[in-house]
Design a protein that fits this description.
The chain has 1 helix and 7 strands, in the order βββαββββ. The chain is of the alpha+beta class.
Length: about 100
Amino acid sequence: MPRYYLDLYNGDGLTVDDDGQVFETRERLRREAIRILPDIVRDEIIENDHTAITVKVRDEDGRQIFRWHGSERTRTSRSSRCCPIRCPPTTGPAGPGSCTRPC
């Protein structure tokens, strides 16, 4: 059975999985990678205060099989770019095209 490696990129750099894990199929690999993502996010973003992480899964030949990237955004203005809800294009407090709702 093929061996796959889950590498982590975070604010500290790259952590390479040297051991890997064996999976019967790529679908089982994909499901396992998705299953553990919440734990990785919790550990890296919440506990270690990293704001962006990427998990890459590679096969024994080094080919990328799966990639996931997540980041936490920091609000810097009241424009529609920071709003979790897409605002209609209106004239808000931050100028033309800005959101009228506070972020």
